[in-house]
Amino acid sequence: MGQRRVLLASTNPAKRAKLRWLVAGLGLEVEGPDASIAGPALDEAGRSHRENAALKAVAWSRAYPGLTIASDGGLVIPALLGRWNSLRTSRFAGPGASDVQRADALLRLAQSLSGDERTAHWEEAVAVASQGLLLKTFSSRSGPGLLLAAPPSGGLVPGFWAASLWHFPSLGKTYVRLTARELRQIGDHWSKLRPRVRRYLRRVID
To answer: What is the DSSP string of 46-67?
Structure first.
């Protein structure tokens, strides 16, 4: 295909940093959304994170001449059953809620859980599209860890509020505080996605 431009399709700076890490060093001209690239109006109505990532990538790609890469992910908490849906992480606390309000709402929702009931894992998907056409999707998961019972002492990492509540007792840290080595120990979803995405992109851009 020979495309060398790639759009990081997210308005979340923390998410763009992860997408940028996925493609770093491939010789691509990496761009983020700006005034010349209008963000699409999206209803993330997919039945999986893979479907939502694909919806995002395709929608953003319609206004961009190169490749578009998008992702969708969330914290899965099985004990909450139908009261929590990882596909609706950013919206479950209501429109316009801040990260702090979302975190507080989830902690209240899970306050009756104890011990292993607080077990949680993460699911993440990445999609690549071009000019309205879905090219490829990838998905991965990591964990398990535990949902904290109270806000983290170090505060929430902007853009990654749910991951800021995801704790690994054996390491004594939340996900957002883990080192590169510790991320490998837990089978980090982003670390597993990176080589797969890069192998695909190398074939596409050659």
So the answer is: -SSHHHHHHHHHHHHHTT-SSE
Inter-CA distances, 152 with 14, 18, 77, 101, 173, Å: 18, 22, 18, 14, 10
> 149-198, pLDDT tens digit by residue?
999 998 999 989 999 999 999 999 999 999 999 999 999 999 999 999 99
Distances (CA, A) of 55 to 9, 42, 94, 164: 11, 8, 22, 26
**Which DSSP state fits 38?**
P
Who contacts 205 (Cβ-Cβ below 8 Å, separation ≥6)?
1, 2, 3, 4, 26, 27, 28, 67
pTM score > 0.85 for this model?
Answer: yes
Q: Which CATH class is domain 5-205?
A: alpha beta
